[in-house]
């Protein structure tokens, strides 16, 4: 079943005013890891007007990445997170944005480079995703958008089992890590000079 059809089925099965996070996870079945990562990253990558979503899904983004690194077969969330709910209209906004991405690329994204989707390779991806989640959490103005986009690219590759897309996202993440490391190194050298100049006055 195509992922776009799976997401539509989830919305059809849950017609209540609010949808619980645990229901979204169970509805995505074997794609729950990648699907949850994409849902968590999307509000950070795009200016979606969904009130309160970032506060709810920011922590799961790091938790799910860590579980992928540790080799969990399916994501697990503490009950205080899994039992959180979102308004159905907000979930529809998220899903519609995901569907617009999937439907645009589903015709060209296909299962290939299966070695990249091997469980051992996915554990390495979990490490990359965890670092990306940590960068998102840093208080950097507009610093959450690029790592969130990379998480979406990797998640899309995981959902459709496309190793080329995953490898592309992993390469982008390495470039981002190098840039962040350089920025932090430059900042660490600049602050002592700034302090010495300030106290010299």
Automatic annotation (TrEMBL):
This is ABC transporter permease. InterPro entries: ExoD. The chain crosses the membrane at residues 46-70, 124-157, 163-185. It comes from Dulcicalothrix desertica PCC 7102. Pfam families: ExoD. Keywords: Membrane, Transmembrane, Transmembrane helix.
């Amino acid at each position: 079943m195509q992922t776009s059809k799976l997401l539509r089925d989830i919305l059809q099965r849950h017609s209540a005013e609010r949808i619980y996070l645990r229901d979204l996870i169970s509805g995505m079945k074997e794609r729950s890891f990648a699907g949850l990562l994409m849902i968590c990253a999307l509000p950070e990558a795009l200016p979606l007007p969904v009130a309160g979503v970032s506060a709810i899904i920011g922590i799961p983004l790091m938790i799910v990445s860590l579980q992928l690194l540790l080799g969990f077969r399916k994501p697990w969330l503490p009950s205080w997170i899994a039992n959180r709910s979102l308004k159905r209209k907000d979930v529809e906004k998220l899903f519609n944005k995901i569907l617009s991405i999937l439907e645009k690329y589903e015709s060209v994204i296909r299962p290939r480079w299966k070695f990249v989707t091997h469980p051992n390779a996915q554990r390495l991806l979990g490490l990359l995703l965890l670092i990306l989640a940590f960068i998102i959490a840093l208080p950097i103005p507009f610093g959450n958008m690029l790592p969130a986009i990379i998480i979406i690219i990797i998640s899309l590759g995981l959902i459709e089992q496309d190793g080329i897309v995953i490898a592309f996202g992993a390469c982008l993440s390495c470039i981002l890590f190098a840039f962040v490391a350089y920025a932090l190194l430059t900042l660490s050298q600049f602050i002592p000079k700034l302090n010495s100049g300030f106290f010299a006055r």
